[in-house]
Write a structure and sequence with these properties.
heterodimer; A: 2 domains; B: MetI-like fold; two-stranded antiparallel sheet; 2 strands; 1% strand
């Protein structure tokens, strides 16, 4: 409502004048204040904690300010588990995002190729992995992964005569990836399918007249027009894969050993009731927070540039 | 003629492959769910024999979990999800109106700041939340989880409602303003009734997200405010995992979510993309 813009009112001082000049403030401010309180205060508290040697169950008075000690320990390599956690978190994010985007896009193209009667049913089925409680789905996968009485090995040994120990140190990472793909491929596919359906048909008609091949049409017309949505799906998947916790916690709890100890699980191992190293855990949590913020800001920026 | 027939044959083969692909994909997406339902109706011995598809049907798992008072966890989950959703929706809709209907300098920057709050990693903020909550002695209360869930529901509600409000024609509100309606009256009498379907859809998405949340619930509750997703951890006993009970809990927990999800299918794409794709 432009008529409520700046010019209509003469400049006035004080809060009332400010509200008159910025009529959006009274709508936006409550939500912004709540979010500010709920995110900035804990972040500051986390930062302060990461400079101390606080342990679970201590009085706050007993905690000592240790400066950058916790961070020096992380970055000087005295905590090899930390670098392992960073490495597999980034590896998982890259692999999961890439594979899910690729398969999701293929499924979207498949859905868009023909109209068929059962399409609503297929889409309905794809909603199940998205809506189901992740921890419960994780437990069910764990039961199916079980090497002796799991469904997958039963089928594999019946069909091909092989058995795979899905959750041993070599395979656990890939098993978690498989569950993540199961959970989020439908997510990417549904978003991209919606995008494909909303594309205008004119460019395709002229491409057909020009005799462009299907592959050429895909790369020169479909992909560029879908850029905004592709970046959006990329943003949502990359960030969620980087902070992965639920399914990995349920499937392996970071094990065997530290084979699947992603960053958030590393934080968990430091701060849980047995170890209680809150100060050190807070430093790792800070690193996780900064990594997630960097990735999300980078991708938000890319997405906004496409949207404009 | 021959060429035409070959072309049709190829097209049919393509369709057949596509159909086959969809059957395989559907099985992959459905299998854990179907397996869960089937395990929930099995006796303990039959669970460890996957080939025994036609195992004896039993409801003993459901009886056990009801006897163990599973309903309390469901009620906790419901209370927390509904309260957090209401709070998020009220403040989110207000903010959405400010973002949708006024043009101000830092608007997009602020909107994306709100979005970025949705990406806050729960495992990173759990440490300060735990310490602050112990300081204020609100660990294991519904109130604490309601606050926590608002951190991700409020940004989501704001973005969804912004999309729904921007879809409305501005002329209605401008006409009402000419007639001398106050801003608040316009919001209450014109905007709200029109975006009500959108609000319902947004609320359902918020409820599903809260219902499934695990990290905050697992680390900030012990007994009183424990929610359903945490219950899976209690089935990991010393004598092994109680798969039957777990599957029964899972089946009951998933039912309302599925009903909700199907009821907002029309808005599914919007919900998945924070309202930025109208789908």
């Amino acid at each position: 409502m432009a008529s409520y813009g700046n010019q209509k009112y003469p400049p006035r001082g004080g809060i009332r004048g400010y509200l008159k000049r910025n009529p959006q403030t009274k709508y936006v401010a409550p939500a912004m204040c709540i979010l500010f309180l709920l995110s900035i205060v804990p972040t500051i508290f986390l930062l302060l904690t990461s400079f101390t040697n606080y342990q679970l169950g201590w009085d706050f008075a007993r905690a000592k300010f240790t400066g950058l000690n916790n961070y020096i320990r992380l970055f000087s390599g005295r905590d090899p588990d930390f670098w392992h956690a960073v490495a597999i978190s980034v590896e998982f994010m890259t692999l999961a995002t890439a594979i899910e985007m690729l398969i999701g896009f293929l499924i979207a193209l498949m859905l868009n190729a023909h109209e068929f009667k059962l399409k609503p049913l297929v889409i309905g089925i794809m909603i199940i992995p998205l809506a189901i409680t992740p921890t419960i789905a994780g437990q069910m996968w764990k039961l199916m992964f079980n090497s002796e009485y799991g469904l997958i090995n039963y089928l594999l040994s019946g069909l091909f005569g092989i058995k795979v120990t899905w959750l041993d140190s070599g395979m656990a990472f890939w098993s978690i990836l498989l569950v993540d793909i199961w959970q989020f491929v439908p997510f990417v596919a549904l978003i991209l399918y919606a995008g494909l359906r909303s594309l205008p048909s004119e460019p395709y008609e002229s491409a057909m007249i020009d005799g462009a091949s299907r592959l050429r049409t895909l790369f020169s017309i479909t992909l560029p027009m879908m850029k905004k949505l592709i970046f959006l799906a990329l943003l949502l998947r990359a960030v969620d894969a980087l902070k992965l916790f639920d399914t990995a916690f349920v499937l392996t709890q970071g094990g065997p050993g530290n084979a699947t100890e992603f960053l958030s699980l590393h934080v968990y191992r430091l701060v849980n009731a047995q170890n209680g190293l809150i100060g050190r855990g807070a430093a790792v949590a800070m690193v996780l927070l900064i990594l997630v913020t960097l990735v999300s800001n980078l991708l938000i920026r890319l997405q906004r540039r496409e949207a404009d | 003629m021959l060429k035409h027939r070959r072309w049709r044959w190829r097209k049919n083969l393509g369709k057949l492959l596509l159909g086959f692909g969809f059957v395989l994909l559907s099985l992959y997406f459905l299998s854990p769910f179907l397996w869960m339902v089937s395990v929930s109706f099995r006796n303990k011995v039959d669970i460890f024999d996957p080939g025994n598809v036609f195992a004896s049907f039993t409801t003993v798992n459901y009886e056990t979990i009801f006897h163990d008072n599973i309903m309390k966890l469901f009620i906790n989950s419901a209370i927390i999800a509904v309260c957090s959703t209401v709070i998020s929706l009220v403040f989110g809709t207000f903010a959405a109106y400010g973002f949708a209907r006024f043009n101000w300098r830092k608007r997009e920057g602020r909107a994306f700041w709100i979005l970025s709050q949705r990406f806050l990693p729960a495992m990173a903020v759990i440490v300060p939340y735990f310490m602050l909550a112990s300081m204020f002695r609100i660990i294991d209360t519904h109130f604490l989880l309601i606050i926590c869930y608002t951190t991700f529901n409020l940004p989501f509600a704001m973005w969804m409602m912004r999309g729904f409000i921007e879809d409305l024609p501005k002329e209605l509100e401008e006409a009402a303003m000419v007639d001398g309606c106050s801003q608040i009256a316009i919001l209450r009498k014109i905007v709200l009734p029109l975006v009500l379907p959108g609000m319902v859809a947004t609320a359902i998405f918020c409820i599903i997200n809260s219902w499934n949340e695990f990290v905050f619930a697992n680390f900030l509750t012990t007994v009183n405010a424990k929610t359903m997703p945490v219950s899976v951890m209690t089935y990991l006993s010393v004598s092994g995992v109680k798969w039957g009970e777990m599957a029964a809990t899972g089946t009951l927990a998933v039912l309302p979510v599925l009903i909700f999800a199907i009821s907002v299918q029309k808005y599914m794409i919007r919900g998945l993309t924070f309202g930025s794709v109208k789908g």
